[in-house]
Design brief:
heterohexamer; A mainly alpha (222); B mainly alpha (54); C mainly alpha (244); D alpha/beta (210); C: mainly alpha; D: alpha/beta; 4-stranded antiparallel sheet; 6 helices; 9 strands; binds protoporphyrin IX containing FE; binds adenosine-5'-triphosphate; binds magnesium ion
Chain lengths: 222, 54, 244, 210, 222, 210
């Protein structure tokens, strides 16, 4: 089971490296969005600093959404999803592996990019640790919740829009806690409280989401 | 009477609110009944097919 | 314990007939309650000491809002039952709930906005209660969207069931998070629910409305349920009797 | 012993087949034939557990397969209309993944086993190319190699010889034969004949439902 | 040729709106996206008003990206793209038709939804005409530029993927002018200048993009 | 008269075939045969202009096809490995789209023509179902109906009989025959035999390149 999950993880990472465009697009979107706000809003850094948390988080949220749409679709189309469904392995574990790959390919890069973009929004260097940790935790939840949506909208036309409609409302808590944590980090106050909440969400997602994904995939494969 | 409809100046908000709500109630009634009617027709059609089908 | 009642609920023909017979028992009381509450609310109840006649919107607003929450709860429960015990009828219940719930959620939003304009001088404020309600509407819309996007009824049933369950797990978390979000922005919840206890002649119509709307929901649900049950029966023998 | 007991399956609200019964015992194969739309694929997908029968059940050695789905899954391979291969992986990488996914560790090393399988299906030269760059028949050969590699007892094959040239079709026939010799079970839906002794490979004819 | 282009347009619309409810999905989607920003930032309307331009244009960008990726991919996978390539019709025209369908399904709904979202962000009613016109113009360009990117990503060649990514920066001018126009509209100042620029970009895109798309599709189909 | 003059085509950096010459005149067909990976699909796609020959050229009635690509495209239909159908449209809608796209207006009304074509390929009952819900062979039949509907003179068919039952294969054979009788040209890549007189349908054997 561990071996199979690892195999799925490795395969998805390798595939991503073979087709870098799909990996880079969400990152590019993230960057464009975060630089867009200063352009549209104001050049004053201390004003930008106020909106930085919201901008970073909403951008991260939407960026990961962008990449989620294709999470299971490709496997479904080339028949490898059925192969996975019939592998004789606990499906939830494999689903978790795929989600982990997705996080490594979007959530993690987004997190690592955030400080750079944060600087453009006037975020002080002292805030970076907080931003990094909160995004790292939050994106995990985003990937997992999104995976559920992706599995549910499998094989649906214009899945992207529907996926957003299904997923975004469920990500509200992550957004709220995450943005708050970032805000506190920028203000230089203690953000452990917000981080705990984010961690709690992540744990909840890690335990429940894979089951939901597995169920959804089974249903979708009929 | 006109004073009643005037609703102490809130008419412009109150009546639309009531109108809308009762529109929603009405829609629910009608759509539910339509759904049942259509389902019945559909079932009849199926049964008909069943008779002359294989 | 004896599960026959459970299986009886599982049997479409029984449910179809039962729903048929029950409908009037919900419909008539609902109608009577709503109409009399209407009279009580618009005519008998005195103007509010600070909101004047504007407060009367509560008689359509609060019941809609309350119903919206309740319908989602019913929907999710039914979906879960359908998914776990593979009970077609339960899926039919869930399917019937979605449209009703969405419509009342929308109603609560719009009536709320119509109330907000005179009360707060703006159509919309980012009040936690309001946001939560808006998110609830999105959950309903997503559920309906997913259903409508899948052709095969069986698949649609179970996929949307998963969504409903995921949603209901999230709902409290969402509610909590928006309250939390609001609290940190120090904007007091504009919709203070701990208003000084209403005088009886104000409260009574509200309670009647709440009950009336609830019964109304029951009645509509029963009718829709019959339709859904029919759709799920591939022309089984009993269908012949009931439709022809 | 693979059994279907009174299987009834609907697609959408169309009844594809009803009350279907059959049993295939070790060392035997079942050739599912029927017009287009007769229900061959539906049957195979039902056996594989990708579709749920509305009535009836599938049994493996006397037990309902739902009761121990994962164990049963390890007993069979399902090869559908399109070979389950990743375009952006090489044939070898695809095969390696397939083995790791099912947790099969061939005796004598994975690498060697893969080479053997590729050679057997006449795709030795193709293993290191991206599947994207393979012709339709070449892809199917890679898929056949994957089939060969799994230790599964039951093979569920949906039109295994499509897009294959004469040599490829011979490969399929011999693979099936050796699988049966090894006491395996093969259920294959085909329009062409697999060229096996009828005694060993009875036909199941599905009636047409448009 | 007109007939063929129309056929493509109608087909794509029909596919997207197979069922009645699906018309409303984009609208709901934009509403969801908009709700995220206050949750990430603040409930105070006069602060939200300032970021409203950014919000609306990010939503626009997201919408076009989210659905464009699948604009040609689906056709490529089910073989209908080749059917279109070999139809004996000027490919640019058909590409334009497909892009038009895409705009009708994303750009237009967003534009129509904008006033409602505006209200929720505290945008004064007086600004609505300006917002409507700027979005209407800007989304056209976004759809067209995005279409070029989507067509390029189709190519099996590794290069295509990255090229496709490069079109994202090409959307920046539109976003900047668009946000600027919206800002002016909210501030109640004259925005004709910004609108002219948006219009110019749109015209440029309408004339050039289809050719680029056609070329990219030809290359990709090899 | 469709000619290939010294065609040389590479896929990736692999030379698939070189210096290929042939000519097919009106009323004749060419059956392209060869092992998997021999280059059948590559050849058909080159004729269709989906691939550019590295050397040589394709001529239609003596003219290089590149010079007047659009006109030439209206002269032929290319039916590849997978039928070009939209899953979420019905068979009819797909056929209608195909006609509108090519600007073909069948005599006697589109609707009637479509019914006729569907009946001819034995898919009369399938026309109003979403293609998503059709079996593999049923899809191919819809694609055949589309082929029938186009007024194109040249048919480029890649394995036209795959996934088809006996009846379906007969339909293809008769369709090809009548197309030839009508003075059309058919270039078909197949592993199975189409069952046509060799005189009318010479074979072009492509050498294997793995
Ligand atoms: C868009 C605006 C609004 C929305 C979405 C909204 C939503 C809600 C919700 C969700 C409830 C809860 C019902 C329940 O308890 O189950 C509610 C109840 C209520 N709302 Fe609103 N509301 C809005 C505007 C207003 C306004 C402007 C007022 C008055 C100034 C108001 C007064 C009330 C009252 C008095 C109740 C009933 C008391 C209670 O249920 O605890 N609401 N509304
Ligand atoms: N995209 C590609 N890149 C590189 N090589 C390719 C590509 N597509 C095909 N080839 C190679 O070109 C050769 C011819 O492929 P082609 O698909 O024409 O064969 P075919 O005769 O159609 O085979 P089949 O009978 O399996 O369909 C094969 O050796 C194949 O490996
Ligand atoms: N998703 C679906 N929804 C509704 N009906 C379906 C669906 N899939 C298949 N069918 C119908 O079920 C029947 C059996 O389909 P199936 O694919 O099993 O046929 P088949 O024997 O495999 O045909 P072929 O030889 O063409 O592969 C067909 O009539 C088909 O139209
Ligand atoms: Mg089949
Ligand atoms: Mg080929």
């Amino acid at each position: 089971m561990i071996g199979a999950a690892l195999a799925v993880l490795v395969r998805d990472l390798r595939l991503a490296l073979r087709r870098p465009g799909q990996v880079l697009q969400p990152l590019a979107f993230f960057a464009v969005v975060t630089v867009l706000f200063p352009l549209g809003y104001t050049p004053e850094l201390d004003k930008l600093r106020q909106i930085a948390p919201g901008v970073l988080w909403v951008a991260a949220l939407l960026a990961s959404l962008l990449s989620l749409e294709s999470l299971f679709r490709e496997d479904a189309q080339d028949g490898t999803l059925e192969q996975i469904l019939l592998a004789g392995q606990p499906l939830a574990a494999l689903a978790l592996a795929k989600t982990a790959a997705h996080w490594l390919l979007t959530g993690l890069p987004l997190t690592l990019m955030a400080p750079v973009l944060g600087i453009a929004l006037g975020v002080p260097g002292s805030a970076m640790p907080g931003i990094l940790s909160s995004l790292a935790l939050g994106t995990v939840t985003l990937s997992l919740v999104g995976a559920v949506g992706a599995a549910l909208t499998l094989g649906v036309r214009r899945g992207g829009v529907l996926l957003g409609l299904l997923t975004l409302p469920l990500t509200v808590p992550t957004l709220v806690f995450g943005a708050r944590a970032t805000e506190l980090a920028i203000a230089g106050e203690g953000l452990s409280g917000a981080l705990y909440l984010l961690a709690a969400l992540a744990v909840l997602a890690v335990t429940l989401a894979p089951l939901a994904v597995a169920a959804a995939l089974r249903i979708g494969s009929e | 009477m006109s004073e009643f409809f005037h609703m102490g100046g809130y008419a412009a908000y109150l009546w639309p609110a009531y109108l809308l709500t009762f529109a929603v109630l009405g829609w629910n009634v009608l759509s539910a009944r339509r759904a049942l009617r259509e389902a019945r027709a559909e079932a009849r059609r199926r049964l008909a097919d069943r008779e002359d089908g294989p | 314990m004896d599960w026959t009642w459970f299986h009886k609920f599982g049997s479409p023909p029984h449910v179809y007939r039962l729903a048929g017979t029950l409908t009037p028992w919900f419909a008539w009381p609902a109608g009577i309650l709503i109409v009399s509450a209407l009279y009580g609310g618009l005519v008998l109840a005195p103007p509010d000491y600070q909101q004047g006649d504007g407060f009367r919107i509560i008689y359509v607003h609060a019941p809609s809002a309350w119903l919206s929450t309740m319908v989602y709860a019913v929907m999710a429960t039914a979906a879960a039952v359908g998914l776990i015990w593979r009970m077609k009828v339960a899926h039919a219940v869930a399917a019937s709930c979605a449209g009703i719930g969405a419509s009342f959620t929308a109603a609560s939003l719009v009536t709320g906005m119509l109330w907000g304009e005179p009360m707060w001088g703006t159509w919309w404020v980012w009040d936690p209660r309001l946001v939560a309600q808006l998110v609830l509407l999105f959950l309903f819309l997503g559920y309906i969207g997913l259903r409508s996007a899948i052709d095969d009824l069986g698949r649609a049933d179970r996929a949307s069931a998963v969504l409903a369950i995921v949603g209901v797990v999230n709902l409290p978390i969402i509610r909590y998070s928006v309250e939390w979000w609001n609290s940190i922005h120090q904007t007091p919840s504009v919709m203070k629910m701990d208003r000084p206890s209403m005088p009886m002649d104000m409260l009574a119509p509200l309670l009647m409305m709440l009950l009336g709307f609830t019964l109304f929901f029951g009645a509509v649900l029963l009718v829709r349920l019959r339709a859904e049950v029919l759709r799920r029966e591939r022309g089984a023998a009993w269908v012949k009797e009931v439709v022809s | 012993m693979l059994e279907a007991i009174d299987l009834t399956v609907h697609r959408g609200d169309r009844r594809v087949f009803a009350g279907l019964r059959f049993a295939v015992s070790a060392g035997h194969c079942l050739q599912v034939v029927g017009d287009n739309g007769a229900g061959k694929t539906t049957l195979l997908r039902t056996l594989a557990g990708l579709l749920e029968p509305d009535e009836g059940e599938v049994r493996w050695n006397g037990q309902r397969v739902e009761t121990r789905a994962l164990e049963f899954q390890r007993e069979f391979v399902y090869l559908g209309h399109q070979p389950p291969l990743k375009d952006d992986l090489t044939g070898r990488e695809n095969l390696r993944f397939g083995l790791a996914l099912r947790g099969t560790a061939p005796s004598g090393g994975t690498g060697r086993a893969i080479d053997g399988a590729l050679a057997e299906v006449g795709a030795a030269a193709l293993g290191d190319r991206l599947v994207r760059s393979l012709s339709t028949g070449q892809r199917r050969r890679i898929a056949l190699a994957a089939l060969r590699l799994t230790a599964a007892r039951i093979w569920l094959l949906d039109e295994p010889v499509t897009n294959l040239d004469a040599a490829g079709q011979a490969v399929v026939a011999s693979m099936v034969a050796s699988q049966l010799d090894a006491g395996g079970i093969v259920v294959a839906a085909t329009h062409q004949d697999l060229g096996l002794a009828p005694a060993r490979c009875p036909q199941l004819v599905l009636g047409r439902r448009a």
